[in-house]
Amino acid sequence: MKIINMLPILSFGDAVGNDALALHHSLQQAGYACELMAAYTAPKITQKETVRSTDDLSDIKPDDIVIYHLSTGHELNLRFAKLNCKKIIRYHNITPPHFFCGYHHILLENCLDAYNQARMMAKCADFCLADSAYNREELIRMGYRCNIEVMPILIPFSDYEKEPDAQVMEQMQDGMTNILFTGRINPNKRQEDVIAAFCVYQKQYNPNSRLILVGNYEGMENYYERLLAYVKEIGANNVLFSGHISFPAILAYYRSADLFLCMSDHEGFCVPLVEAMFFDIPIVAKNTTAIPYTLGGSGFMLEDENPMIAAALMNRVLTDECLKNKIIDGQRERLCDFAHEKIEKQLLSLIEDFIK
After folding, report:
1. Domain 158-337 top-level CATH class
2. Alpha-carbon radius of gyration of the chain
3. Positions of E strands within 169-264
4. CA nearest 153: which of 32, 248, 272?
5. Nearest to 99, CA basis, from 225, 189, 187
6. pLDDT exceeding 90 applies to what percent of the chain?
7. Could you say which DSSP state residue 215 is in?
8. Residue 257 to residue 198: CA distance in whole angstroms
9. For the residues 141-156, what does the mean pLDDT come to?
10. What does the domain layout of the chain look like in residue ranges?
11. What pLDDT is recorded for position 251?
């Protein structure tokens, strides 16, 4: 018997790919015979990992366990469903297609395919691992009737203790208040709502402030151009789009941030919230999809995207030291629930029970 973590695309720095790698390493260290398989693997990963292509699945045996990471439309979804083996679906959520309307027709079609394929795959799943309660509920709505357990993304926090980019640190630690949001430039992330709230905060409370939007916009250039035009239109100053950057640079932005602002409309888990917890950055976030699950009562929740309310709350958190410390204490407590050792123990227990 071997345990195979399989997914269509294994990308560097992607939350789904990182989770697949983390699960693979934990199972491997526990003594299981393990493999990684992907239809496409980023060259940066193949320099460090042995990843088999999914072109040939003929050697997968009935007693093998395939943990399939589902988050996108792909022909591999259908091939996985036909495999004669034990099947676990690790569900990371699928972005609703309507977010890409007018921005990216191919991604829109891909997400439509993903939902159709996910519903079809309900019949083949022996067991599911959803990385949030929100994702578990979505699997149930799509017709999954097998046992579904919630297991958060396995995050190797030791990576965050690495050295940040010194040049970025020097640039950002200049006395300005840094408001941060990290996440790919995508319409579902609602970066325009982050910009709107920041602009009100900057104009009404703190002109000596900067907004840092960390995230790659490759493939979403038209949305990025719209955001640039919006910044100019509303007169926001000191808005920085990082584009694709190195991991040390990301660490530097986290270490320099005074507040993390998330106005996303759709998240299946939202790893950046956990990252903000790790770096003791107070979080203000909109109450949508998986965000309340990930925060677990910590942070400061917004019920809508009203920029006036968001700006007022940002100012309150940043000027009320007692409130800020209370929020950070709550986030530290919640962070314990995502401890690598704790999630790894849950993973190994679930796999052991599944094998029985």
Report:
1. alpha beta
2. 21
3. 177-182, 209-214, 239-241, 259-262
4. 272
5. 187
6. 96
7. B
8. 14
9. 97
10. 3-151, 158-337
11. 97
Per DSSP, 320 falls in state -
Count Cβ atoms within 10 A of the Cβ of residue 59 and give its class: 0-12 exposed, 13-18 middle, 19 or more buried. Answer: exposed
Tokens 């993973």 locate to 347
Q: pLDDT tens digits, residue range 264-311?
A: 999 999 999 999 999 999 999 999 999 999 999 999 999 999 999 999
Q: Determine the pLDDT at residue 264.
A: 98
Q: How far is CA 318 from the centre of its chain?
A: 25
Q: Which CATH class is domain 3-151?
A: alpha beta
The string of DSSP codes covering 234-251 is: HT--SEEE-BS--HHHHH
Question: Is 348 buried (19+), middle (13-18) or exposed (0-12) by CB count in 10 A?
Answer: middle
Give the separation between CA 175 and CA 208, rounded to whole angstroms: 8
> Within 10 A of 286 (CB to CB), how many other CB atoms are there?
24
- Tell me, yes or no, if the two domains 3-151 and 158-337 fold the same way: yes
Cα 256 from Cα 175, distance rounded (Å): 10
* 283 close to 295: Cβ distance less than 8 angstroms: yes
pTM for this one?
0.95
